[in-house]
Amino acid sequence: MDDQARIMQSIGGVSLAGHSVQGGMALPPPHGHDGTDGDGRKQDIGDILHQIMTITDQSLDEAQAKKHGLNCHRMKPALFSVLCEIKEKTGLSIRGAQEEDPPDPQLMRLDNMLLAEGVAGPEKGGGSAAAAAAAAASGGAADNSIEHSDYRAKLTQIRQIYHTELEKYEQACNEFTTHVMNLLREQSRTRPISPKEIERMVGIIHRKFSSIQMQLKQSTCEAVMILRSRFLDARRKRRNFSKQATEILNEYFYSHLSNPYPSEEAKEELAKKCSITVSQGVGSTITVSQVSNWFGNKRIRYKKNIGKFQEEANLYAAKTAVNAAHAAAAAVQSQANSPTTPNSGFQMKDEEFQLDSAESKNTLLTNMFTGSSGSFNLPNSGDMFLSMQSLNGDSYQGAQVGANVQSQVDTLRHVISQTAGYNDALGGNTIIDLCLVAQQSSVQSLLKQQLTKDPVKARSCLEQSKVRLAKTGSLGEALPCHFHSALPTSPSPSPPSS
DNA sequence: CGGGATGATTATAA
DNA sequence: TTATAATCATCCCG
């Protein structure tokens, strides 16, 4: 409208001097000069302009008819060329107004986010296909599919709405653009419109629509964010694992204390195991990522305060030992009286800690030292020695011997791992020293004495190590009295009550 | 109700 | 990518 008015004004000012057409009202022609060619034409022009200016006030049919009439008017070509001329002069300002629209950073951000959330981008089909794609995209997070299904369903919903809306907007945009272009093309018959102008108009329309699109994208992002936060909130609402599940995890942790980093397969297995035991009670399952979380937390918390976990560690060391003993008992029963192969059938799953039978004797002894160290500060410290005696006794069958070895190997691993794996913690050197000492000849002689039933001398050796311990370490706290539950004190080892 | 235990998330480094 | 460290948020027990 402004342009039109301006052009009209220009016409009035430049080409049609003397005739004001402002407001669409042509002044009556000057009197006394009737019949002159110029005046008649001017009146004609004024009339035409008047018709043009009032055309919008008329009904559509009327206007259409009038338009046709004007198009066929004899003055039209002349007027058209005048308009062209005027446009030529005012065109500069229009042309100067065009700007290269740089990509809106906010829009880009929104686009990126939608892409990242999987809302935008290629359609991933529906249902399981989307699930597989999502799992593949997040790299082995397939285990979360159950808990994520709800989230994904909602996300898919959002994506569908988004795409529907987007399509609708695009369609509307195209329709409107086509409409405007047709309009402009038609108008170009009555006024000069360059292709560039049409292009510009299209650009304006697209910009308008893209701003609408941005609103759509923004609200979609908001929806996703809300969904996400709700989802995360829901996940934050944690439930403690069942006792059985925790037990399974702890068992693994403490029996792999030197390297408590379960492989992906191990995690899967643990998750499955936990889920199975859990599913009897609650309907929840434990995922691989939860196992990872658990191990992550456990490692860091164990490391932070080893002392606090001693009790637990010993408990589980004993537990796994007993379990292993029970599992192996049947296998070993057939060769019950073969003391030279106490370790057969008790191979650790962890190759790293497989010991041959000769070494296992040393281990056993070492373990007696390290293990008993915790009892030195206790009034019933004699128990440990007694258990050594009984260990040496003939009443033990192969299975029990195996159990003892197993138990102590576990415990040794446990103790060593404290120093090797986390050697900055309490009294690490003491234990290392002890282990070294234990493997030296003096200790081996102790073993021999033990084996040859010389408890008195063995005891003196033990006393020596006691002194050594007392001098060097605070191990007493590290290995509390619970420890000897890991050691055989009765001929038939039974699982410690948990 | 307070505080420790614990599962989950986040930030950061290797 | 994964492990760690810190932190958050909730659970749970006394």
UniProtKB/TrEMBL annotation:
Residues 232-305 form the Homeobox domain. Its main location: nucleus. Residues 234-306 bind DNA. It is found in: Nucleus. One of its GO terms (molecular function) is DNA binding. GO terms for cellular component: nucleus. Residues 40-233 form the PBC domain. Keywords: DNA-binding, Homeobox, Nucleus. PROSITE patterns: HOMEOBOX_2 (PS50071), PBC (PS51978). SMART domains: HOX. Belongs to the TALE/PBX homeobox family. PANTHER family: HOMEOBOX PROTEIN TRANSCRIPTION FACTORS. This is Pre-B-cell leukemia transcription factor 3b isoform X5.
